[in-house]
Amino acid sequence: MKKLQCCTLAAVVLAGLAQAQSLKVVNAASFLENQALTPGSIISIFGTEIAISTAQAGDPEHLPVQLGDVTVKIGNTPLALFYTSPSQVNAMIPSTVAAGNFTLTLVSGRGTFSAPVTISPVGAPGIFSIFGTGTRDGAILNALTFSPGPFTVTTHGAPTYLAIYVTGLDLSVAPAVHIGGVAVPVSFYGAAPCCAGLEQINVELPKALAGAGRVEVAITAAGAVSNVVEAVILPSPGEGDFPPSGENVPRDREIAEVVWIPGTSQALVSDEADDVLRVVDLQAKQVNAVMDLPTGSEPTAIAVNPAGTLAVVAERNNGGVAVIDLARRSVTAQIPTGGGPSAVAIAGNIAVVANEDSDTASLIDLTSGLVKATLVCGRGPRGVAVDAANGLAYVTEEDGGAITVIDLAGMGVSRRIDLGVNSRPRAIALMRSLGLALVSEPSGEPAGTAVVVNLADGSVSSTGVQLADGGSAGTIAADANTAFFADQTGASVTAAVVSLNGGAVSLTQQQIKVGLGPRSLAVDRLDNLLLVANEGDGTIVLVSLANYQIVGRINAVHVPGEPESEDDHNDRGQAHNEPSVTSVAPTTIAPGSQVTLVVHGANLAGATGLAFVDPSTLPGNGKGRGNGHSGDHSGGPFGNSDPAFTVSAVTVNAAGTGLSAVVNLAAQAQPGTRVVRVITPNGESSFVSTDGDIITITGGGGKDQ
After folding, report:
1. Residue 703 included in any domain
2. CB under 8 Å to 543, separation ≥6 — which residues?
3. CA nearest to 688, candidates 650, 639, 646, 625
4. Cα–Cα distance list, 287 to 121, 295, 553, 563 (Å)
5. What is the helix (H) or strand (E) element at residue 13, kind and residue range?
6. 702: which strand partners?
7. Is residue 33 within 8 Å of residue 26, measured between CB atoms?
8. Adjacent-strand bridge partners of 679
9. DSSP-based three-state secondary structure for 408
10. How far apart, in whole angstroms, are the C-alpha atoms of residue 610 and residue 693?
11. What is the pLDDT of residue 356?
């Protein structure tokens, strides 16, 4: 396997997205603190007002030692610079720097800054992510086509090879790579050709991973485990109930999480690609309603209050959560929390949200809709469990290797439970009757184990979990003294009765084959069912808790009334809460003018803005498999919003049937029709042209008025 050109990764290396809060020096891919740095690796230096301006190296293969007004040294050795800004500097440690403790010194027009650093010949490698945060989707390409994911296990009929981009990799020994907990063959590891300090690892995707869905990717090198990123592994074409239309072709519907609505025979399912929630009737065994969320929000985790009246949905790409009135099946609030919210739980009137990208947990008062506290956690908060009776919340730090324990009454961190330097905890489930927490370790060492935490004293042990194909448990659900472990790569769930014998934990286990990519689990106590969300085949599997037999299988990507083969975003149009536009006035606007636009329609409550879409930018009206979509209303199947329009002073009537807004049109605007779309907490109105949602730009644009 040849080394591939990776210039598309240069932006990730040259400029990260993390925001500085205090001076620190970290691996530029993982951002893991309190770890030794390695010679030849790329680092990020965070601070406040540490440079006057922003500058970027023109050639990432040949770097300057002075960039803008900044120079950096470790001891007396200058560092090559990729990027400088007032809050962040990215640099490369020369391979000639010896091991030891040093002072890093940064000199700029703002002054001289310093920090202690430890240089070690061996350290934990960092995997770059496409968001520049070291979390979520990894900087991973198909090594043959140079395309990002999702991936199938074959490309042009041959095995798929992936290229994973890292820094700080010890090249003296072969790294081990785990995808979904499965060890995958490494075909190449070494320096990447595009950028100084960047390494790449090429791996082969085994056939056993087909249809695993969104799984973790981690690297172990010289005994150290990297940060955790993610990749989506699709079924092969023709495989399962919901195959892609071709190799490495994205699907427009990817189910993420299932939760039971207490007191009912209904469940909610989030779809991270379609940006909707689906309501599933567990008795009729079908989807019976759809709820829209904002385009590009990537809804993942869901929590429902004990009364079954309210849900909170983590919108991973929106940096916040949606609060949903389940009786009205509509979004009542969009609440910003932090970067990459990936898990949520409800205790009483408080929602606890784990913000994976920003290393925080948000505590939301569900009565006021206000964030009452934002607490600093360790690196990569990933899972949340709450003990409402004792007023505690437990947040796993996936890359921090620990659990943050939160006092909900005092709204502060009460303690931190360390799980070990190579621990990579993901999901957490509480077994209150036993005084235990079980924590999954899909990327930790060794595979096939769960961490056991004594909730009273914080002591930690581990126990083996019987899983298929050498994988590792992802999601965990608990019911009384039984725990359920989802094995995405093994297409199965392990049911384990947990018992304590003299303080030692033992599991009596049974495997249940459920289908491709079981990603999420929930317990339906009314119908005595385990609900399994299979991302790979798009189904919800119903497992009897009486005998662990499968008693039903529900198509969770299909809405009654549409062809079952459809894989597009058209089910959004069937949503009960979808905003709609029936008329706009005025219907014409001249370049360089200002008007008060009045819009009539339905479900317009909470509108925050308008988009004006040029119909010519719509790629086939958004139909067909594999169409992307954008959360900024600019591109994808939802068209390009014309930047010539500026909108302010949006007001909506109490019924949500009408709004007004001040609209300014630039003098350079081009004539033609635009579809008026209303942006609300419940998503956006249709991009399809109708008689009522068109405004026409008159005259000729392009000159000053």
Report:
1. no
2. 493, 512, 514, 529, 530, 531, 532, 549, 550, 551
3. 639
4. 55, 21, 12, 14
5. helix 10-14
6. none
7. yes
8. 609, 684
9. coil
10. 12
11. 97
Average pLDDT over residues 307-318: 97
- The amino acid present at 206, given as its one-letter code, is P
Structural domain includes residue 517: no
Whole-number Cα distances in Å, 500 to 137, 428, 435, 497:
38, 19, 10, 10
How many CB atoms sit inside 10 A of residue 86's CB? 16
Nearest to 149 by CA among 167, 134, 133, 129: 129
- The CATH number covering residue 657 comes to 2.60.40.10
Q: What is the pLDDT of residues 110-168, one digit of tens each?
A: 999 999 999 999 888 999 999 999 999 999 999 999 999 999 999 999 999 999 999 99
CA 113 to chain centre: 34
- Letter for the amino acid at 594? Q
* Mean pLDDT across the chain: 90
Q: Which of 239, 265, 293 is the last residue before a domain boundary?
A: 239
- Cβ distance 671 to 652 under 8 Å? no
DSSP track, 351-367: EEEEETTTTEEEEEETT
Q: Is residue 171 part of a domain?
A: yes
Q: For tokens 């093994």, name the residue.
A: 490
Exposed, middle or buried, 703 (CB in 10 Å: 0-12/13-18/19+)?
exposed
Reading the block at residue 561, the tokens are: 């009334």
